[in-house]
Design goal:
By secondary structure, the chain is of the alpha+beta class. It is 32% helix and 17% strand. Helix 1 (35-48) packs antiparallel against helix 4, helix 2 (69-81) packs parallel to helix 15 (434-444) and helix 9 (237-253) packs across helix 10 (263-274). It is globular and about 70 Å long.
Length: 455
């Protein structure tokens, strides 16, 4: 699918790999041959060797035969961290990985329960021939991205978990935790990829006031956030959060990769639009919101959304009309699903990477922000998945400056309606979760584009 905005996404000629004359590609000092001519030449070389099929590498299939899709991403990450070449075979067997042969990786995959297949030079030539002839592409991953998660310190008690942190921990992918002070001190320059933990950047404590303002955890969070804001020199928590949102925006503009789920998506853009305007009620900060807050919103400052209307009532568990959770609630878990778009792997490798999965229809899952109102999504924002026949968009991506952002609605792909206080999802029971695959696609995505940090 050639989607609106896709033409602006990075192409394979932007430095991820270099092509040799005749279509061959340099990799690790050796030439890998692709296409029908390349496959024929590779087979001829094998014939000249008397039919001996030298072991060329290992394929991690990502279709339905894979025994642990999630840990497969961790294996690919560890290979990159060790300096090995990893190719992401877009749309080939649901986004498989091709790696060089390594006893260490073999041992790791056996220990982790990740299915892999030995590939000799002839089989590899056949893979490249199939890729060349179909809507597929081989993308060379260049490095293990440096990963940060924006998450409160342990003193801020939160009775919920975060799907991205669960995925990273299960896959064995390392990350650093940081929060407002580190962001505002410029620490984001140390990282390629940033995830915004389940967060409320508007300074309204998740708009949990109506249901939980008497709960100990809610009161503790408010005390802790107010103390952090004062220590940083801000009179109000919302000012503190809006400043953090601005620093994150600058990080993306300089080339950072941003990923967020649930309330970390719309509350973030709302904070950018509000800027220095008070949009929070007295129950949160002791004074009323600016009565002219809505017309003062600057949608041009947002990454993904525009023309939205704020929900100013502190007793309503909603930030704005961006979110369409009520529609998922009406459908219920048995009828709630969304569909991934298909893109041209050769022309639009970035959205293709982000949508790699062994299914194209996924079960829905709710969050404080479950889906996005199509009428509030900027035309420059690329839709990756939607609820068919509706204005509900579930998964979006876009460019901003030299960087990108990707937002996924919902809280936990394997817990339809994750409630406050519910235990974390055990991913060992969901090794082939399509929704968690979308998260891990985003983790590996920065490896496919060489980043020159500008600080």
């Amino acid at each position: 699918m050639q989607a609106q905005g896709a033409r602006d996404l990075p192409r394979k000629a932007t430095g991820r790999f270099r092509r040799e004359p005749g279509g061959a590609r340099a990799r690790g000092g050796a030439r890998r041959l692709r296409g029908a001519a390349g496959a024929a030449l590779a087979l001829a070389i094998l014939a000249g060797l008397g039919g001996a099929a030298a072991r060329a590498g290992m394929l991690i299939p990502m279709d339905l035969v894979q025994t642990d899709h999630l840990k497969a991403y961790g294996v690919a990450y560890q290979a990159l961290k060790a300096g090995m070449d990893v190719e992401w075979l877009l749309n080939y067997r649901s986004g498989s990985f091709l790696l060089g042969d390594s006893e260490e990786l073999r041992r790791l995959m056996l220990l982790e329960g990740v299915l892999f297949e030995e590939v000799d030079a002839g089989a590899e030539a056949g893979i490249y021939g199939e890729i060349e002839a179909n809507n597929m592409e081989a993308i060379l991953l260049e490095k293990a991205p440096r990963i940060a998660v924006y998450v409160p310190p342990t003193a801020v008690v939160e009775p919920w978990d975060d799907a991205v942190m669960l995925a990273l921990d299960y896959a064995g992918i390392p990350y650093d935790e940081l929060y407002d002070d580190e962001v505002q001190a410029g620490r984001l320059a140390e990282y390629d990829w940033l995830h915004l933990h389940h967060e409320d950047f508007t300074g309204q404590y998740g708009k949990f006031y109506a249901g939980y303002h008497q709960a100990a955890w809610y009161q503790n969070r408010q005390v802790q956030f107010e103390a952090l804001a004062r220590a940083a020199g801000y009179a109000k928590v919302w000012q503190y959060k809006h400043a953090t949102a601005e620093r994150v925006r600058e990080y993306v503009a300089r080339g950072g990769f941003l990923f967020a789920m649930c309330s970390g998506t719309d509350s973030y853009d709302i904070a950018l639009a509000a800027g220095g305007t008070d949009i929070v009620d007295a129950v949160y900060d002791g004074d009323p919101a600016d009565p002219r807050a809505q017309p003062q919103l600057d949608f041009a400052h947002c990454l993904a959304f525009e023309n939205f209307t704020l929900e100013m009532n502190p007793l309503i568990y909603e930030f704005s009309n961006i979110d369409m959770s009520d529609y998922s609630r009406l459908r219920g878990p048995a009828a709630d699903y969304f569909v991934l778009f298909e893109f041209s792997a050769k022309e639009d490798p970035v959205p293709t990477m982000l949508t790699q999965c062994h299914v194209n229809m996924l079960n829905g899952f709710m969050g404080q922000t479950t889906s996005f109102n199509r009428q509030t999504v900027k035309p420059s924002t690329l839709v990756l998945a939607e609820v068919p026949g509706s204005d509900e968009v579930r998964y979006i991506h876009g460019n901003f400056g030299q960087g990108t952002f990707t937002f996924l609605g919902g809280h936990d792909p394997e817990d339809y309606e994750h409630h406050v206080g519910d235990p974390p999802t055990d991913l060992s029971l969901h090794k082939s979760s399509p929704g968690y695959r979308l998260i891990l696609n985003n983790v590996l995505f920065p490896a496919a584009k060489k980043q020159e940090r500008k600080t």
